[in-house]
Specification:
Protocatechuate 3,4-Dioxygenase, subunit A; binds fe (ii) ion; 11 strands; 6 helices; four-stranded antiparallel sheet; alpha+beta
Length: 298
Amino acid sequence: MTMMGNFVTAYWLTAALSIFQAQSVQVLIERNVMHDEGKRVSRRKALAGISSVGLAALLTACSRNEPTATTTTGTQAPVSPRAEVTPSATALLDKANTCTLTPSTTQGPYYFDADKIRSDIRESRPGTRLELAIQVQDSELCTPVPNAVVELWHCDASGLYSGAEDLSRGAGQAPGGGGGDLEPQDANRYLRGAQVTDAFGRVTFVTIWPGWYRGRTVHIHAMVHIDDNRPLTTQIMFDEAVNAKVLGKAPYNQRRGRDTLNEDDGIFDPMMLMKTEPADDGYKGAIVFAIDSDKDGT
Ligand SMILES: [Fe+2]
């Protein structure tokens, strides 16, 4: 089923979030050695995973054009127009590259459905404020893609991923050798979230500038869902001159020894660079994700 022209929106999520967030989390003790960005997983597994209800319900409501969605408690929440995107960052979209297929990358070992349908993903994590505007676009038609789900996840200023703090501290190995979506290892969900694109294919997020970890340049993971497909898994990266400015300040400058710049990163692609500009309280940035709507990254 195509999503083009499907303008169902999702205000119900705000009310439903508190329910979704109450899901149980299995706490396991694992140790690993370093982040491994070379893993791919089944989307089916992602949706059927330990905390999949929020995203699955969202995708179902969007794809079926339904007026209500079923929450985890079995109640019906109304589906109504989605929130307006934040204008300041979206203005930057006009300067972003368009209509060229965005490179796909591996999702890395720390993806799981966090059940966090929200725009502000900071949860008070310290760091430089970063307001993001993303537009999903059909690379062949050069038209916006409404009703796509855009997910982001990234590490904090100290290089840790929520739901995987022990793993991302740097000793041991991802569960099951790292293949497949991660089963959350702790109850934290900071710096993870998903939004549904508006009629212009846009979403906005408020987060912090990511930190870094060994072997990788500074990046934000991103995934686009349409219906039950996963047409794009990619990463967002930043100009090194701006990385240097941000990482030179607290709290980022409490860590030393960053070992991988964009030019040394095995995943970096210039098309993954986000256009950024200083803002009063940090930075704002914009990027276009041009997708192949027929592709499923499952
Ligand atoms: Fe990563």
